[in-house]
Design brief:
- The protein is α/β, with parallel strands linked by helices and 534 residues long.
- The chain has a domain of 230 residues: Periplasmic binding protein-like II (D-Maltodextrin-Binding Protein, domain 2).
- 33% of the residues lie in helices and 14% in strands.
- The protein contains 19 helices and 18 strands.
- A seven-stranded mixed sheet has the order 2-1-4-3-5-14-6.
- Strand 9 and strand 10 form a beta hairpin.
- Helix 16 runs antiparallel to helix 18.
- The longest helix has 21 residues.
């Protein structure tokens, strides 16, 4: 088997979600494989991996004569993946599964008919493990125009964003708190770091401050949603729903007049998208100029050069701390969730509105001739959760150890630590483990997000924007916003932020912003009317 991955800095660059990447050129690593006549399943994945030889050897050892495959993984750095995926699909490169996502190019590639409809392989007794692992409701929430063009992967219906920070460092700064629980404390921490050390207060990656100044679940609780099928990060927009979820009040963009927001709760009756971008600018005081060039802020943190970084919680601080200690042996990592919806007193059944849509997927290229064999492999893989554990944690007894029924502890392997972008293959809402070494509060937060009773269905569940009628306008808006994305996300426009917002809005209107607004409203209202009729 040929495993394509980067050589340089894999240990330091693999971060939360097992998916951080820091270079450009893939290399090859050899591993023991089944017989050369064995069918090969080829994957094109985003990110990096390490320690895969022992994982694949353990997987191959479970195969029998009726269930035997050779696996070939190609890993492409996160920053280069989208372009490589487009090139591979155009060139009909020989892959059986490719990674894509709603926040990447899933809607566009599906509309261009580059992916197969896999609906017949699910809820199908001929593939019993897939039928058990992927419920009918879960699949229905992830269809596009009635077809299943992507296999959805998520271990929870919301991955909590926040700030990872150095708790050991906090305890040396003389501040009147020993953990960070709110924004004021976080800013005191950053200020003290800047004053008392040479470390960067925070390092950001390509997504900038992300939702730090626009907490998503709090917005959802107030009827404010992003559109499935057109990523907020391609062009910022929000859907405003009535309190009963039966009417679209508006679709709003940066630069809109306040009249568009008038029907919302009082705190949102002015353009909160403008305010979000302006707050990013205010918070840019904590950044270094080179943050604009980084793909992932975790790399600097893991080198011991920054005191915090922004990312989503995923499986917790355990793996992050393990990696940090290869450079900073005394390092202790903690996590602060910056959306008040996740404060302990705000956690309740049904308090997380959701569409049940996954945010990561595997797709089968439309030209693939190996689909039945590929889906047979996937069904076999999901027929035993221990095989899924291999891609989540590595080899039991070498990389990790079971603790109780649903916890684990990380081990320190003699060789290279296992890393794999498991969110692209091995995450599932029905199977979770929690790192036993995590603080009790972090465990409680993970358990809350893993518990399906924490969620309530959105009126937008099952809706995906059909961009075909507005394809030219969407393409133009996406291309335009690419000029602003990095600077807005990092607050780099500073005092010119509002000027740049107004400039974006004026240019967007010339491209067809109002046409897009009207079409989104029309499609969503049609969806809501259908829900009401049912």
């Amino acid at each position: 088997m040929k495993l394509h991955k980067k050589i340089a800095a894999v240990m330091l660059c693999a971060a939360l979600l097992f998916a951080t990447a820091c270079g450009t050129a893939p290399a090859q690593e050899q591993s023991a494989t089944p017989d050369s006549s064995t069918p090969t399943i080829r994957f094109l994945l985003r990110g990096t991996a390490s320690g895969m030889d022992r994982v694949l050897d353990a997987l191959y050892a479970q195969m029998d004569d009726d269930h035997r495959w050779q696996l070939d993984f190609t890993f492409v750095d996160s920053g280069d993946y989208a372009q490589q995926l487009a090139r591979s699909l155009t060139a009909h490169d020989n892959y059986d599964f490719v990674f894509d996502a709603p926040w990447q190019s899933l809607a566009m590639q599906t509309e261009q008919k580059n992916y197969k409809n896999l609906k017949n392989y699910f809820n199908n007794p001929e593939y019993p493990a897939l039928q058990a692992a992927f419920s009918e409701e879960y699949l229905a929430a992830n269809t596009i125009s009635g077809g299943l063009y992507a296999i959805p992967f998520t271990n929870t219906y919301y991955d909590v964003p926040g700030i990872f920070y150095r708790k050991d460092l906090l305890q040396t700064l003389g501040l009147p708190f020993d953990e960070i629980t709110n924004r004021a404390e976080m800013e005191q921490y950053w200020a003290a770091v800047r004053k008392k050390s040479e470390m960067k207060p925070i390092s950001l990656g390509s997504r900038g401050f992300y939702q730090y100044n626009l907490p998503e679940i709090t917005l959802r609780q107030n009827g404010i949603w992003v559109s499935q099928g057109w990523s907020f990060w391609d062009y910022p927009s929000q859907i405003l729903l009535s309190s009963d979820g039966k009417q679209v009040l508006d679709v709003v963009f940066p630069g809109d007049s306040n009249e568009h927001f008038a029907a919302l709760p009082e705190r949102y009756q002015t353009n909160f998208l403008d305010a979000y971008l302006q707050q990013n600018a205010a918070d840019s005081q904590w950044l270094s100029p080179d943050d604009l060039l980084q793909e992932n802020g975790a790399r600097v943190f893991l080198l011991g050069q920054s005191a915090s970084y922004e990312a989503s919680l995923a499986s917790g601080t355990g793996q992050v701390q393990q990696q940090l200690r290869t450079i900073v042996p005394e390092g202790e990592v903690a996590f602060w969730a910056y959306d008040d919806a996740f404060l302990p007193q705000n956690r309740a059944q049904g308090s997380i509105p959701t569409t049940y849509a996954a945010w990561n997927d595997l797709c089968v290229p439309s030209y693939s001739t190996n689909t039945i064999e590929a889906m047979r492999f996937l069904d076999w893989l999901y027929s035993d959760w221990s095989r899924i554990d291999l891609f989540n944690y590595g080899v039991e007894g070498t990389d990790w150890q079971v603790v109780g029924d649903d916890e684990y502890t990380l081990l320190q392997p003699m060789g290279e630590a296992f890393r794999f972008p498991s969110y692209e293959l091995a995450w599932n809402p029905q199977h979770h483990r929690i790192d036993t070494a995590l603080p009790d509060e972090e465990k409680a937060l993970l358990e809350f997000t893993f518990d399906q009773s924490s969620y309530a269905a959105s009126p937008l569940a099952g809706f995906t924007l059909n961009t075909t009628p507005i394809a030219i306008e969407i393409a133009g808006l996406n291309s335009l916003y690419a000029e602003y994305y990095t600077a807005f996300g990092h607050g780099a426009y500073g005092a010119q932020t509002q000027e740049k917002i107004d400039e974006l809005h004026t240019r967007s209107e010339a491209i067809g912003l109002e046409t897009v607004r009207a079409e989104i409203i029309r499609q969503i209202q049609t969806h809501l009317d259908k829900n009401s009729a049912e």
